[in-house]
């Protein structure tokens, strides 16, 4: 299963036939394995890794640290879920350490992201403070290197 | 003016340059060539090994080492052999740390072969054995292995080449370029032939860690074979450390003591920084080997399937990082195939006959490349074969 997961993590578009060959299994076995991974909630989806900076050079992504007062009944859950429901929000994670919740947001420009933080995050009663970090450049996303391919310094041919 | 033809050694002047030179030159001058031609890992040396080298440099530990190599490294190498192939060597006098496996091969052949000696060389195989034998005045005697035997050496093939003058057998498994391995039962047959003789074995096991079915077996581990075997291994392929130039030669001290004299005069000692880093490799990088091997294994399965689907018969190699498809169905020679492929589709592979005449009709394809690289190459080779068949090849 680990090899299958690693292959899919590196390229989710490999066909079952290709996966079967590489893993030394039958296509049916691979299909069953994938179905199980999906059913067990281990694979929760398949997505394209988009380099937003190429797709829309003006877009900006920010990581926002939130210090939050936990609620008496639900702890952090309700706050995190309400933040997650905004479409601009790409991820919401509860963290250990100096702050509580880490939110990532992508917008078409800095002003839009700043406004979102001020109006929609900082304004939440339970949020004590926010720290917004704008992303400058990505080198690796979801385990995939997104910088231009490193040059192969090996020769073209060697016996 | 000096007449160089009079001053140079005829033995060197008559030495043939490597057979891939021509293709290398062609590939080099074309734009956008993707290569499947290299013989070294695409992985980087594990970070802990590189960091150790940096530490060593920071501490300024840059002097010569003992001729045979750092004592700690030889100890680790002895432990490695004991663990991996079940053969015990005395680290004080039976192990030499060499400049790559290549130097070990050179030391071994030069310490053994004299004028008129015959050296049996399993082919197809790496290109260095014959020239060194010839330089020693020895006679290289190729033993041609066959696709139908999965390029294994058979006892019969071996027996048919042995004469009174046979001194040494070069046994290069897992094999470059075929990817063949010798299983225990295959080696036992070979050992049966050799036990009653004075013939030594140079067992080039540089690809031993890249064995995909079962565990690598060394002929040195079979009864009575340790005394007549020189094991060559190294760090290049297993630990992705090609440029560090570090190998290991292990043999009974009667042999290593002679080899060490040559090493001492020609090399002094292997690169010190590399030696310190190699200790870390042997102590800490078993997991990296497994990870790399698993990755190679998936690529191997992908390529074998892809070539067979393209109609180029390809036996399933069990070692190294090469597949060796047969290209006879195209009606082209190995050289023509490679030349046309690199010109028309800009894919560089190595003609099989670069590794001995019996490699004619095959090409060597390396899978020391990422899967996406391999997929693109296979796509181009597919187009090439299609156009070849239709007669539309430009």
Describe the structure.
The complex is a heterodimer of chains A (159) and B (394). Chain A contains six helices and six strands; from the N terminus they run H-H-H-H-E-H-E-E-H-E-E-E. Chain A has 159 residues and is an alpha+beta fold. Chain A folds into two domains: 2-39; 52-136, Alpha-Beta Plaits. Chain B has 394 residues and is of the alpha/beta class. Chain B has two domains: 4-45 and 287-390, Alpha-Beta Complex (Aspartate Aminotransferase, domain 1); 47-284, Aspartate Aminotransferase, domain 2 (3-Layer(aba) Sandwich). Chain B starts with a helix and ends with a helix. The model of chain B has no long low-confidence stretch (mean pLDDT 96).
Rg of chain A computed from alpha carbons, rounded to a whole number of angstroms: 21 Å
* CATH third-tier fold name of the largest domain in chain B: Aspartate Aminotransferase, domain 2
* Strand arrangement, major sheet of chain B: 2-8-7-6-5-3-4
- Order of strands, main sheet of chain A, comes to 2-3-1-4
Number of helices of chain A: 6
3D shape of chain B:
globular
Unreliable parts of chain A: none
The biggest sheet of chain A amounts to: 4 strands, antiparallel
Q: Which architecture of the largest domain in chain B does the CATH hierarchy give at level 2?
A: 3-Layer(aba) Sandwich
Broad CATH class of the largest domain in chain B: Alpha Beta
Helix content class of chain A: 25-40%
- The total strand number of chain B stands at 12
Q: Helical content of chain B, roughly?
A: 40-55%
The biggest beta sheet of chain B is recorded as: 7 strands, mixed
Give a quick summary of the entry.
The complex is a heterodimer of chains A (about 160) and B (about 400). Chain A has about 160 residues and is of the alpha+beta class.
């Amino acid at each position: 299963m680990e090899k299958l997961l690693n292959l899919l993590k590196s390229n989710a578009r490999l066909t079952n036939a290709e996966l079967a060959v590489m893993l030394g299994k039958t296509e049916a076995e691979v299909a069953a394995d994938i179905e199980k991974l999906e059913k067990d909630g281990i694979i929760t989806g398949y997505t394209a890794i988009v380099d937003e900076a190429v797709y829309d050079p003006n877009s900006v992504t920010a990581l926002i640290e939130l210090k939050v007062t936990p609620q008496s009944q639900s702890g952090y859950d309700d706050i995190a879920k309400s933040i997650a429901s905004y479409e601009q929000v790409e991820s919401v994670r509860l963290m250990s350490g100096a702050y509580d919740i880490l939110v990532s947001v992508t917008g078409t420009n800095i002003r839009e992201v700043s406004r979102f933080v001020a109006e929609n995050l900082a304004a939440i009663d339970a949020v004590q403070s926010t720290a917004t970090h704008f992303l400058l450049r990505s080198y690796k996303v979801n385990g995939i290197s997104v910088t231009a391919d490193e040059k192969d310094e090996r020769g073209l041919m060697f016996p | 003016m000096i007449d160089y033809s009079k001053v140079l050694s005829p033995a060197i002047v008559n030495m043939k340059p490597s057979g891939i030179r021509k293709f290398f030159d062609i590939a080099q001058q074309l734009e956008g060539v993707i290569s499947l031609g290299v013989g070294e890992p695409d992985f980087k040396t594990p970070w802990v090994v590189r960091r150790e080298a940096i530490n060593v440099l920071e501490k300024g530990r840059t002097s010569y080492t003992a001729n045979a190599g750092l004592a700690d490294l030889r100890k680790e190498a002895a432990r490695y052999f004991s663990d991996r192939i079940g053969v015990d060597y005395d680290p004080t006098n039976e192990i030499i740390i060499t400049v790559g496996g290549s130097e070990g091969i050179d030391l071994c052949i030069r310490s053994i072969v004299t004028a008129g000696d015959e050296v049996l060389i399993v082919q197809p195989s790496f290109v260095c054995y014959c020239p060194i034998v010839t330089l020693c005045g020895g006679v290289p005697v190729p033993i041609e292995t066959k696709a139908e035997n999965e390029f294994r050496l058979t006892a019969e093939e071996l027996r048919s080449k042995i004469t009174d003058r046979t001194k040494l057998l070069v046994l290069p498994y897992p094999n470059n370029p075929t990817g063949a391995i010798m299983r225990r039962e295959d080696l036992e047959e070979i050992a049966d032939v050799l036990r009653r003789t004075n013939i030594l074995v140079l067992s080039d096991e540089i690809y031993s860690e890249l064995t995909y079915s079962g565990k690598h077996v060394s002929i040195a581990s079979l009864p009575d074979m340790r005394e007549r075997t020189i094991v060559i291994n190294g760090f290049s392929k297993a630990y992705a450390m090609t440029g560090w130039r570090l190998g290991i030669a292990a043999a009974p001290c009667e042999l290593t003591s002679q080899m060490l004299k040559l090493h001492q005069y020609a090399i002094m000692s292997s690169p010190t920084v590399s030696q310190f880093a190699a200790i870390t490799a042997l102590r800490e990088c078993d997991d990296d080997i497994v990870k790399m091997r698993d990755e190679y294994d998936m690529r191997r399965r992908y390529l074998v399937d892809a070539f067979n689907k393209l109609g180029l018969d390809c036996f399933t190699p069990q070692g190294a990082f090469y597949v060796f498809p047969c290209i006879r169905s195209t009606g082209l020679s190995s050289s023509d195939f490679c030349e046309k492929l690199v010109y028309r589709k800009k894919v560089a592979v190595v003609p099989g006959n670069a590794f001995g005449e019996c490699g004619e009709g095959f090409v060597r394809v390396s899978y020391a490349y990422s899967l996406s690289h391999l997929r693109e190459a296979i796509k181009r080779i597919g187009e090439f074969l299609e156009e070849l068949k239709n007669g539309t090849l430009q």
